[in-house]
Amino acid sequence: MQIRTLVFKASVILILSGILFLSRISYGDSLDSTISSIQQTYDTIKDFKARFVQESRVKSLGAAQVQKAEGVVYFKKEGKMCWDYQQPTPQKIISDGKELWFYEPEDKQVTVSKVGTGLQSQISANLLNGKANLKKDFRVALITSQTEKNKGEIVLELTPKTTQANLSRVILRLDEKNFQLHQTEVYDLFDNLTRITFSQVESNTNLPDSLFTFSPPSGVEILTPPTIPLP
What we know:
alpha+beta, outer membrane lipoprotein receptor (LolB), chain A, about 20% helix, globular
């Protein structure tokens, strides 16, 4: 896989990893109180794990060109994450909060970079490291349609207040009854979409730090991408 593709994929995955902590909200009298509830939950959740299905659409290739993948994700505060892709091609994206590993077993390659190298935006870094602030970093809108209300959903749109190299907006879909996050949609500046749907969600299960480290097996080629400064 080309390094530029890996760097972009890292940025999307890291944004989604941060958004995973926005897993419950409570109703209030205003959007502002809803945002405060989300931020409060974001600040208190320590870890998160779930099964996921990922759909990626490149707009220039047409709506029919959708790439699908699925697996299990583990996430822990202080920037720790592990995306274990099981279908259709085994891959792992792992971070201990300082380094990123992109492991492709079939190619016998792992791409290693510092966290700041693969993010392309400060918001991505803040989300991953647990420093994001919704009121400061995003404009938040409640965009639930009547159809979605009838399905028991709450839908929020997050738009960065400053232009980001890899992100134009994020859509969060939550369950109305328990306020659990079950889907995120991330759009870049070209309107390309990465949608991830979650199931079997669990939080605060004391995930071990060993999940978030990686030692390359014997015979695996180690690659290093170019440094990309955060804007």
